[in-house]
Amino acid sequence: MTTQARAPKRWLAEVFVSLKPVVNDPQGLAVRDGLHMLGYKEVDAVRVGKYLTLTLTAADREAAEARVAAMCEQLLANPVIEQYRLQVSEADDAPGSQG
Amino acid sequence: MRFGVITFPGSNGDHDALMAVELGLRQPVEAVWYRDTDLSRFDALIIPGGFSYGDYLRAGAIARFTPVMGAVARFAEAGGPVLGICNGFQILTEAGLLPGALLRNQQLTFVSTWVHVRVESNRTCWTAGMTPGEVLRLPIAHGEGRYYADPETLARLEANGQVIFRYTDAAGNVTPEADPNGAVNAIAGIANERGNVVGLMPHPERAFDALIGSDDGLKILSAVLTAGVDAATARS
Q1: Domain total for chain A?
Q2: For an interface test with B, which of A78, A82, A84 has the most B Cβ atoms less than 10 Å from its Cβ?
């Protein structure tokens, strides 16, 4: 097929969700205190968040990014308290992909 | 007045709420499955506590997209009285029917105890007839009950009288010790602008008889009996 470049591809999206900087994160404070107790005095701050991986089909990287951003806004993150960052890469060689 | 109590997979306060309405209020009440979409037979709805969908992702995040929640939103939009208790409060904030969010408790531990809350406003369906300043004794049981809203939202809530319950000591004083989870401004419960949708972390349905520790919860559940009639009239 000459149109292969335009065929839908499978993408791996990695989503990082964390509390907004203005929102107090007691989990992060507890982890920081634990690190201090272990002697890692150089640690100023710790924020605890979530890491999600999604595999999805989309025509191109931009389309995949747009879909995942919409998912973040609607469900994966709560915009009232959380921020997110996402990263999309080709997933066709990833384990579990359909040959 | 006919009450509906919604059950999601993982709800655990639904039977307490059914019992409180039946035995405490002596009003007709019915369990509503989360797949139901017709709520027209009800005059008031209770979204109970528990761990809907195991609190996966965030408390209330997934329950918010169930079929019944679309019907709840329409019911609330039409002015119908809705009370969200604990996980029900979390679901209502996730659904955008109430502002703000509920975060992990400041001390990171689940807290199950009795607290005092001060009634701040009686201009809602679920506080009508109470006296502002009145102190209620109610149980709490939650791991994610720390109310948060950004400063602008918070200022608006305070200015509009939408903060309706605050954690206090037995005398009604806000003290750091009386706030069980680090909630901003010691907020235990809020209402929407219209006053028909209310969410709170304490459990009024577990305080409907002195035999189980307190009957102060009945004041909240019964407020809607008078206020809800006006709301129903406004809807028709």
Answers
A1: 1
A2: A78
Is the C-alpha dihedral spanning A40, A44, A47, A51 positive or negative? Answer: negative
State yes or no: is B203 an active-site residue: yes
Residues A75-90 pLDDT 10s: 999 999 999 999 999 9
Q: What is the domain-level CATH number for residue B147?
A: 3.40.50.880
What is the residue range of A37's domain? 7-90
Count how many Cα atoms sit within 13 Å of the Cα of residue A76 in the half-sphere of its side chain: 23
pLDDT in tens, B11-48: 999 999 999 999 999 999 999 999 999 999 999 999 99
| Residue position matching structure tokens 């797949």 | B35
Element (H, E) at B220: helix B217-235
- Reading the block at residue B173, the tokens are 């004083």
Enumerate the residues of chain B whose CB falls inside 8 A of the CB of residue A54: none
Question: Which segments of chain B have a pLDDT < 50?
Answer: 236
Minimal Cβ distance to A23: which of B62, B65, B103: B103
